[in-house]
Design goal:
The protein is an alpha+beta fold. It has six helices and six strands, in the order ααααββαββββα. It has a single domain (about 15-175), classed as Nuclear Transport Factor 2, Chain: A (Roll). A six-stranded mixed sheet has the order 2-1-6-5-4-3.
């Protein structure tokens, strides 16, 4: 049984600890119901296009677009920072619906390292996430690994694993602030 299920907050960096105590975090990480899968059939020609749609869906709070990014496979998985492993489309959908019920997810990729083969791709992503806490808006760094497989319907996500980033990862965020366009 997970520590949070026993009433103990997971061991998270200080910035994330207040978030772990919120009801949304508990619903997100420990869903109790499942929802049907999206039937959206969008064709993406590359893992980058699928990833762009995934982050757009987070920004928009669009559950149908988000679920259309995932593979039609029972073995897909998602892990949110400090949360349990969510297996299958129903658990993943429920977690994101709970998140979207409280607003959109303000996450954006800052840096992506790609490893691509013929029918699979792994993206190691440094994300900047804005989190609203009782004392105001905070920015956090999240490290995510997104795994994609090429299917007949295009590139689809099969895994999203996100963890809180640390001080060295925050340097990526700071470097992005100083880039002039």
């Amino acid at each position: 049984m997970h520590d949070a299920a026993l009433g103990m907050a997971p061991q998270l960096p200080p910035l994330w600890r207040p978030l772990a105590a919120t009801p949304i975090f508990q619903r997100l990480c420990f869903p109790t119901t499942t929802m049907p899968r999206s039937s959206a059939a969008t064709l993406w020609g590359s893992p980058d296009e699928t990833e762009a749609a995934f982050y757009e869906a987070l920004q928009l709070g669009d559950i149908e677009l988000l679920m259309s990014c995932w593979a039609e496979d029972d073995d897909i998985l998602c892990i949110h920072p400090g949360g349990p492993r969510l297996l299958g489309a129903g658990a993943i959908r429920t977690a994101f619906e709970a998140m979207f019920a409280h607003g959109t997810v303000r996450a954006r990729p800052l840096q992506v390292h790609r490893v691509v083969a013929l029918t699979s791709a792994v993206h190691s992503v440094v994300e900047q996430v804005e989190v609203m806490l009782p004392d105001g808006l905070h920015q956090a760094v999240v490290l995510a690994t997104n795994v994609y497989h090429k299917a007949p319907e295009g590139w689809r996500m099969v895994a999203h694993h996100a963890s809180p980033g640390g001080a060295p990862d925050a340097q990526v965020v700071e470097a992005q602030r100083h880039v002039l366009h």
